[in-house]
């Protein structure tokens, strides 16, 4: 990708974000403006903002990278991301808006009349927000590294600074317009290039991707490995090497990589001929090994493919309703009816976007299999315009894609920072108000920025999947039972949040830290929703039944407010 064009595209998006955020300072004055835009956002505008916020770096970059690497079973990610809004529509959207809350901890306290439940809910909001921010910052680092060559942490730092300015300047009111604009930018950034990419693929006689375990180099390809890696060849491959192979230094000579493992040194360049099968990194040196690429249940997941798939489905289907940065947007609608309309429109907007992402994964399998060697599979969307089209047209399309990627991590990072800052301002800082909200934006983004410098090798969509698992195990039970079961008690809610959400958060923390790398233990920790969601529901129900005398006295009035529709205004 031409760096000049790419930098220009990213800079334009950043300037637009800062400009709209700064203009928000003129219209955001009250606490209600900053938290929920004074509850005046119309359904269509709010749906665009929800979609812009929800379609993160995991959607824009990560899903295509996972399809490239692991195949069609990764399509469960976009299916789950979208289908989660059906459950949100059916069970949560309208009652949550009628609750009159500003944040999820607000709802928890209003429904259960307990400060303890509020504090635990606030801690989980912050934990989920920070966990979700990690892949956004990684996506930013990856994009800017490809564009400029700077270290990945620099991209994360730049995004953190821009997001802090945008959130602190205008709060929810200005972020709404920013995110709505960014949805259409992201859709355009995928739709326009993919039309040209498919034309180029058609002109190349429409080759089909390899349906076997190992992809092939469709064209002669040069791969530069910046760090040492162990590659496993399943068949002899003849390559031209400039660097170190199996401890032997070669200067532009031809080497045959026999079947088996080979140690490639840092700063080594490998040139593969067309038709050569791609030797892949082993599991110890990367996360890109794969098998059964064309099957919906991949045997790569430690041979527990069915369990892992159910874990992914449960996390994404149930986790959406508890994502703090998504839920807070429904508080901005005028009433519950508008919240439902917003959700219906979001389903259409997300569906249009996710139809495009798998095409990039398929084309990446054909024209960018070298990303499997380097571990940069999340970069498939960014490199394809230059690979298939090239020239000035490829540079311009690449700049558009880079701008869309920038919008992806900026919009989601803004929403997450907004939701975390709201909790910090209300429940951590000594007093409330706009000034403390602005101050809270700094630690809301600073902590994951610092953590992102340490955790740098987790695929973007995988990291987001872990955040969904924590959300599904904590806030899904709280919202469903809190809205639809009047028997929920504060001790029951506390037990469910701690056992369900706490266990899922512990599991994903161990996974990110690399505590378990193989076997059933790894599978249980990496996809915890199968057991942690039932634990959360069971703990809430059983503890509430054991503490029936602790049902809050205002439960009847609260349930009526959640479920009775607002009166239709009468206009003279």
UniProtKB/TrEMBL annotation:
GO terms for molecular function: acetate transmembrane transporter activity; symporter activity. It is found in: Cell membrane. Its main location: membrane. One of its GO terms (biological process) is plasma membrane acetate transport. Keywords: Cell membrane, Membrane, Symport, Transmembrane, Transmembrane helix, Transport. The chain crosses the membrane at residues 6-25, 45-69, 75-96, 116-133, 153-171, 183-201, 307-331, 343-363, 396-425, 437-458, 464-485, 492-513, 525-546. It comes from the Bacteria. InterPro entries: Na/Glc_symporter_sf, Na/solute_symporter, Sodium:Solute_Symporter. One of its GO terms (cellular component) is plasma membrane. It is a multi-pass membrane protein. Belongs to the sodium:solute symporter (SSF) (TC 2.A.21) family. This is Cation acetate symporter.
